Amino acid sequence: MSNGFRARLGSISTIQSARSLFPTTTVEPTTAVTFTNVEPNLIGTESTYTPSVTDSEGFLANSGLLTDDEVSDYFQQPDEDLSEMLTDLIRHTPEEPTSAKQSFLDVNIFPNPYDLDEEEFYKRHIEISKEDELFHDKLKQFFILSNAGKPIYSMNGSDEIIIGYMGVITTIISTFEENMNEEIYSISVGDMKIVALNKSPLILVSISKIAHEQPNVLLSQLNMLYNYLLSIISKPTIDRNFHNKLNYDLRRILTQLDFHNLDCLCMKMTYGLTSYDSFNYYISQLLNASLQQIKISYTARQRLNKILLDSKRMRQNSDDKETDLGADLLFSILSVNSKIVSFMKPKNHNLTNQDLTLLFSIINSSKSDISNDETSEDMWFPICMPNFNPNGFLYVFVKTIILQTTPVTITLLSSNKNSFYQIRQISNYIIHKLTKPKMLSKLTKELHESNTLAILREVPISHFIYKNKALNQFVMSDTDNSVNSVLQLSYFYNTLYHTKASQMKTIGSLNIKKFSYTRWTVDEAVITGFMLSDNNYEFYCLCNYQINSKELIGHCIKVIKWCEKNYNRLFIGNGVSFT
Amino acid sequence: MSSRKKTLLKVIILGDSGVGKTSLMQQFVNNKFSHQYKATIGADFLTKEIIIDNNKPVTLQIWDTAGQERFQSLGVAFYRGADCCVLCFDVTNEKSLNNLTSWKDEFLVQSNVSNPQDFPFIIIGNKIDVDDSKKIPSLQKKLHNITHNQLGGLNYPVFETSAKDSINVEAAFEVIAKMALQQEELNAASGGDVNDDYNDAINIHLDGESSGCGC
Ligand SMILES: Nc1nc2c(ncn2[C@@H]2O[C@H](COP(=O)(O)OP(=O)(O)O)[C@@H](O)[C@H]2O)c(=O)[nH]1
Ligand SMILES: [Mg+2]
Fold it and tell me: Tell me, what's the ipTM?
């Protein structure tokens, strides 16, 4: 927890008056405005709607919230008008973010029955603990067990305490199994949700007391844990070990690193904590395994792509024999903090986003600390990419080099176990090209600037996400990785994402726009969340004060236009292919 | 390279209702004896750690029925993946002794273990604290017949115990744990874990049609 608890909430700060930790105001999202039942032609009636906090047909026209028509208006302006509007908006000087130390506890994301302070709360309810003492206080549990009832992994607690539960779970699941042969079981008991995934001979279970975690989210988390196991040991290995040996203890072939990685995954999936890439991972999963991108100029990207393609064609002459060094190379990835800058793949094959995020996750947690060093050691390990092929292994070469201050990771996937020396030569070639003076200075300058998206200086939006739907890739503003910020941002975006969207009236257009709007009130402070989407994009943003709806839409459109204009700089698209 | 954790053994206790299975488990794990136990779901689980041969820690995950053995419906999860099995009878109840063979058969059918002849079983005759007058007449002879019957094949170590007075309970569980651990070590030695099998390389035909990848 390097960032500490007292770190200021970077992007979303609100005024906090002196008061107890327990705010009297409710922070239920003032539930989204939805219009599903509204006649599309009820123009002018918006002001007669009464405020509603349910997801019924009402909306809060009088409190600065959007009306259907207001939003629609914006999209029926011809583009000339739009540019005029935008000039207006540019003149708008963003208000200084109010500096305050709003705590995640004030947002009532989690119940706080013992009235603990942040640090105590984190220790008692959130942090992973293998001691039995706090087992029942944890908001989240994950279990992986064999269907004989033998524990394989538990997020919290010791064997002592979980072994009994494992027995109970197996017994219940097998009762269902005998009766209906289902793969998924989900029940809710009070404020607790339990989801089990039966991947015989393994069973995965998640138990959550976190209100905003929906069963479908828990299920995808379980699939992620399962995919992790597949990626390190593959399906055939699991099956072979359990074949004729239902009492097999899978822990025998898992290493300490695997248990550590599973811990990291559990924290990432649930809270977006605790490493530098965890929040990005959380958002990526929330957006359906979308891949996070990094801004870089088109020419720079083209050059990087060319380096990857050239490296694939490398040959070596020795003893009158020519060897094709890249013969077994399948995928090459250049990335900065898990964000892909350049990607090369075979023409007929691809890696899914799920596989790529899993790959990055594993690379990150196995990476040695390279912060003081120029380059990391070479890593070479087998990995199964479950969506690519659950039955076999690819071999990954990973090396991180520091360009000035930016860590650039080279990841090369080969189909051949014995190709380490060839692949390392390819990596050396790539490093050689990257560190040529001209390339180096251009690249470092660009990567340095990409950290902050310029557009944010012009709008009073504190945080945004723009996702290109066709590519399933997204860009997002920077986040300070403090526990406090991450817990709030993940909660806000999660709520916004799951808020039912309303469809906008668009005349004669097939490009249907949808939006939703959510507001959180924490004492006197207001946080506004807004989602806008059409066939091409999804846009989410947070604004740290009460903002006039017209203004807000204007700002959003401005950011969206900026993202569209910078398409080639923001997205890697499909990467480059070799044939 | 694997993180050799403590070995975990799944122990299941079988026998007619009322022979004292729950009492034995309670005595072994909690050093308690009570006349009333109840369980709410299909099985009850207790855990106990013991040290075998002075240096091998094992965790026993003991599965007890919730009394439904009366109806002979223990469900597959109960038997699945057991490492050893304790067959119990009551020294005052002859029928429970005669039923041992069917409990063993039931176990082998349901658990589907691969080498039944090597599977670790022990037999426990419980309630030896009661007055001799109530015990099965010529118990030793009958017991001998059962364990040495070529056909029945219950040739397993026998322990006479009292869950009530805590006689021989620990010794019995230690022996079964030791047997199970030995079996486990044998399995590990022969064939062992499949975990260095990274040779399932993927055959990719880069110029041909999509193949080798599941996408
Ligand atoms: N005298 C005596 N009674 C016992 C002993 N073990 C169990 N009992 C009693 O036998 C009855 C059945 O025991 P229980 O453990 O419930 O048997 P289960 O149905 O096999 O689980 C209870 O009334 C116990 O108190 C023992 O060692 N000695
Ligand atoms: Mg009982």
Answer: 0.79
